[in-house]
Design brief:
Blueprint: H1 39-54, H2 56-79, H3 92-102, E1 109-114, H4 119-131, E2 135-139, H5 147-163, E3 167-174, H6 186-196, E4 199-204, H7 215-218, E5 222-225
Parallel strand pairs: 1-2, 1-3, 3-4, 4-5
Helix pairs in contact: 1-2, 3-4, 5-6
Length: 228
């Protein structure tokens, strides 16, 4: 986003407020749940709404696929991957559900996750435990904790599960956890998953726009994110 939406970037801080619709007398503290988008985004949204209302049949049948492909290409460039590797979902939680519910679990399979898992995602794991053969294993972390200790706890949990005859099938972890808001060493967790032949499912809801994801380098099996 730019200062005049076309030229020089707007510096972070109070100067960016001019691009948003937030009431100057209102201080939002819960931006994660009910965020707002910049004025240029609203203008673009209205532009597409006008297009769809002016010629609805042509828009949805012929024009929309091209717009979606263009948006996918833009996101792919931001993530450093090919457009063919990107698909749109309603939100990150929907993406997590899509991946987990698409897997066919067998007896002995385990979903490994941290105690800081997003609540909605944990409910999905609990649902799958009730409706399929999969089990779950929680890696308990209490902050403050260093990255190396967190990685060690994850590896210990995986080793313990395998020792007990279980099969860690998929590991679910964040790029940046929501409670508390801490950057997770997700890249190294992906490396461990590769070495242990575990599917890596990265909840990057707080990823795009927050950190450089470098997906072409890290190459997790699945990563979902939000673009708000």
């Amino acid at each position: 986003m730019t200062a005049d939406t076309k030229t020089s970037p707007s510096p972070f801080g109070h100067s960016m407020l001019q691009h948003f619709l937030t009431d100057p007398s209102y201080l939002p503290l819960n931006h994660g749940s009910f965020g707002t988008y910049p004025k240029p985004v609203r203008e673009r949204l209205h532009h597409f709404q006008d297009l769809s209302e002016s010629r609805p049949d042509a828009f949805f049948r012929y024009n929309l696929p091209g717009y979606v492909d263009s948006a996918r290409s833009a996101v792919a460039q931001l993530l450093g991957v090919g457009a063919g590797e990107c698909v749109f979902v309603s939100n990150a939680t929907t993406g997590i559900n899509t991946v987990l519910r698409s897997l066919v679990f067998e007896k002995g399979d385990v979903i490994v996750h941290f105690s800081t898992i997003y609540a909605a995602c944990e409910k999905t794991v609990e649902y799958l435990k009730e409706t399929t053969l999969v089990e779950s294993a929680k890696v308990v972390v209490d902050y403050p904790i260093g990255d190396n200790d967190l990685l060690a706890r994850f590896k210990e949990k995986v080793d313990q599960l395998k020792k007990n005859g279980k099969r860690p099938r998929v590991a679910l972890f964040d790029t940046v956890s929501s409670l508390p808001g801490v950057r997770v060493p997700w890249e190294k967790l992906v490396d461990i998953c590769k070495a242990e032949q575990i599917l890596s499912l990265v909840d990057g809801a707080h990823g795009v726009g927050h950190i450089d994801l470098k997906l072409s380098q890290v190459q997790p099996d699945f990563l979902v994110s939000n673009c708000h």
